[in-house]
Specification:
Elements (H helix, E strand, L loop, with lengths): L1 H5 L2 H54 L5 H15 L2 E5 L5 E4 L4 H4 L9 H9 L1 E8 L4 E10 L8 E8 L1 H51 L13 H37 L3 E5 L5 E4 L1 H7 L10 H5 L2 H11 L4 E9 L2 E9 L5 E7 L1 H37 L6 H32 L7 E4 H18 L3 E4 L6 E4 L1 H18 L5 E9 L2 E7 L7 H4 L11 H6 L6 H11 L3 E5 L10 E7 L9
Parallel strand pairs: 12-14
Antiparallel strand pairs: 1-2, 1-5, 3-4, 4-5, 6-7, 6-10, 8-9, 9-10, 11-13, 14-15, 15-17, 16-17
Helix pairs in contact: 2-6, 6-7, 11-12, 12-17, 13-14, 14-17
Bound molecules: adenosine-5'-diphosphate.
Adenosine-5'-diphosphate (ADP) binds next to α14 and α17.
Length: 597
């Protein structure tokens, strides 16, 4: 099989053609030879029986014979005239007379009862066979028949034998001529088939060569040297195909070059990981960032950045997390926003945005706010102190003056609350919690917050349903978590009418605990919902001020929750209700090795 597979295309066609030719000539040839042979045998057999009839007739006319010797003489005489051997055999097989054997040797001839033709004649009356005669050393055709001789009690067997070699010689002559003609036809067909195959093979090899060249990027036009119409058309088609491939290759190469130029010159760092998590490609920005010019490929992110956070994020995305992003401080005051995206075919794309300038400006702004708040705190404390002294001291004021002092006191308190919240907010934004974070019981934090707020609730006759079944372990900063619960409860009480209920619930979801504070207050219209976590964003400015709000409570909650690795959001009205709002926030559960992601 491998032999055929490694043969040239033309040789395979030739081999197939010759096999077909041999079968086409050989099978009819063999069939004709054997049909002819059978025909000849049949004709010879018929002739032998005709001759046997004649001899039998002669013998019948010649009898009676006095002895075996008389028969033998008669056989010898007629056999000579007729040109074939005549034998007379007794039913037991003993030879009584034989034309081709001298009379004195006849008695010594072996028993003929088992000669095929004799055996058949004894059984059925007539018999014939073709075989080699050991007596005469050539092929003979024998015909035998039972016949009755006067003076002989039981029927004898009369047998004649004619040479079969003549028939054989003729047959062989026919066969020789037949194969001679066939050999000539075969030789002619061989020559012609080689000639035509070579002609047909040549354009096929030209096509193979053209396509091989196209594969190596040689798109120059070429024509197949052949007068066949199909090959002419085929070479036209191949040229068209070469043009199209050339155009596409050119476009792809150009686009690839353009893309490479863009990626190489981007200020953002781009890093491509293969499915094993090793670096496949980086752009210039990443090389500069990691200081690994030209030698990043094939390494792990850890090897070039020496940073656990990047390696951890890459491992997570390679392991199946579709997206991941975090802020990376590579060195002091150098910040990168890192975005990781899984590639469907395996591997990941990592993009580094330098946000150092943005962070610097944010810090300047935060410092400014913190400084202003700080600067305002002392004069405000002083104003508050003096006003309180004036109001509670032994001074006499007109009613108007007293009312002015009370307004000053109220506004100074409000300003002081704003300054406190601003300082709190800048502190939250400045320092991430990572150092203070630990495993905290959220239910205990809620109890602490609700106890502080309880006088306010009692004042408005509001019931707090605490459905948090403690302890609820979360990853958090304890005072920040108490502040978050406190702010949400404070809002729920301040904005709800008297006598309603507030419910606190928690639920577990994929490694997180989600807390919900639900109230029956006025709710928040849809258009405000996306903005209420911004600083100083108030739905109704007057209502907020009236209730003593600073406009910073939810912003503090948002920053505190984000700092603890969670998220905050709200729903108003809550599912299945017509009024009120629910504030949700999530916190991570502490790491538990038995817990499945
Ligand atoms: P404030 O100090 O004004 O309450 P917050 O940041 O705490 O500031 O809240 C922002 C705004 O969101 C509030 O001014 C108020 O209009 C709205 N808000 C907050 N909580 C609730 C609540 N539970 N029900 C209705 N409105 C609320």
């Amino acid at each position: 099989m491998t032999g055929i597979k490694t043969m040239r295309f033309g040789s395979r066609i030739l081999a197939a053609f010759w096999i077909v030719l041999l079968v086409a000539i050989g099978i009819p040839g063999v069939y004709i030879y054997y049909s002819l042979k059978n025909d000849f045998i049949e004709t010879s057999r018929k002739a032998a029986f005709e001759n046997l009839d004649f001899v039998e007739w002669l013998a019948a006319r010649q009898q009676p014979f006095a002895s075996d010797k008389d028969i033998d003489e008669w056989c010898a005489r007629f056999a000579r005239q007729l040109g074939f051997r005549i034998t007379v055999i007794e039913p037991g097989g003993r030879v009584a007379a034989d034309s081709d054997v001298a009379w004195n040797e006849v008695a010594g001839m072996e028993n003929h009862a088992y000669r095929e033709e004799v055996k058949t004649a004894l059984r059925t009356g007539t018999g014939s066979s073709i075989r080699y005669s050991d007596t005469l050393h050539r092929h003979l055709i024998y015909a035998a028949r039972q016949f009755t001789l006067a003076n002989y009690p039981s029927p004898m067997i009369l047998r004649i034998a004619m040479p079969f070699s003549e028939v054989e010689t003729r047959l062989n002559e026919y066969a020789r001529q037949f194969w001679l003609i066939n050999a000539f036809i075969f030789a002619l067909a061989l020559g012609l088939s080689i000639y035509f195959t070579r002609r047909f093979e040549s354009p096929v090899y030209q096509i193979i060569e053209r396509i091989r060249k196209i594969g190596t990027g040689d798109f120059t036009h070429g024509y197949i040297a052949d007068d066949g119409r199909e090959f002419h058309q085929l070479s036209g088609n191949i040229n068209e195909m070469a043009d199209r491939i050339s155009l596409q290759v050119e476009t792809i190469t150009r686009q690839k070059y353009e893309l490479a130029v863009i990626i190489e010159n981007m200020r953002e760092g781009i890093l491509l990981l293969d499915k094993t998590g090793r670096i496949k490609a980086v752009n210039h920005a990443v090389e500069a960032l990691a200081g690994c010019r030209g030698s990043c490929v094939g390494k792990t992110p850890m090897e070039i950045f020496l940073n656990n956070e990047i390696q951890g994020a890459c491992d997570a995305v390679i392991a199946g997390t579709p997206e991941y992003s975090f802020t990376l401080e590579l060195e002091e005051d150098v910040f990168y926003e890192v975005y990781l995206t899984a590639i469907p075919e395996g591997g990941a794309l990592v993009v580094f945005y330098n946000v150092s300038e943005q962070k610097r400006l944010e810090k300047i702004r935060r410092d400014f706010v913190a400084n202003v708040s700080h600067e305002l705190k002392t004069p405000l404390t002083s104003i508050k102190g003096y006003v309180e002294t004036l109001l509670s001291g032994p001074f006499s004021f007109t009613d108007d003056a007293k009312s002015f002092l009370q307004t000053i006191h109220k506004n100074a308190n409000h300003m002081s609350a704003i300054v406190d919240d601003l300082l709190q907010l800048t502190r939250l934004q400045d320092k991430p919690f990572s150092k203070q974070m630990g495993t905290v019981d959220a239910a205990a934090c809620f109890t602490a917050a609700s106890e502080t707020i309880m006088p306010m609730a009692l004042e408005k006759n509001i019931t707090i349903h605490n459905q948090l079944k403690g302890p609820i372990a979360v990853k958090a900063d304890e005072s920040a978590l108490i502040r978050v619960f406190g702010n949400l409860l404070d809002n729920a009480i301040r904005y709800s009418p008297e006598g309603v209920a507030i419910t606190a619930r928690s639920m577990t979801e994929a490694g997180k605990i989600i807390f919900a504070i639900e109230d029956e207050g006025p709710g928040i219209a849809r258009q405000h919902q996306s903005r209420i976590f911004e600083r100083f964003y108030r739905v109704e400015k007057e209502r907020s001020r009236f209730t003593g709000g600073t406009g910073l409570g939810l912003a503090i909650c948002k920053n505190a929750v984000a700092g603890m690795g969670g998220e905050i959001w709200m729903q108003s009205p809550p599912g299945g209700k017509t009024q009120g709002s629910t504030f949700f926030f999530s916190l991570l559960q502490p790491y538990n090795p038995e817990q499945k992601e």
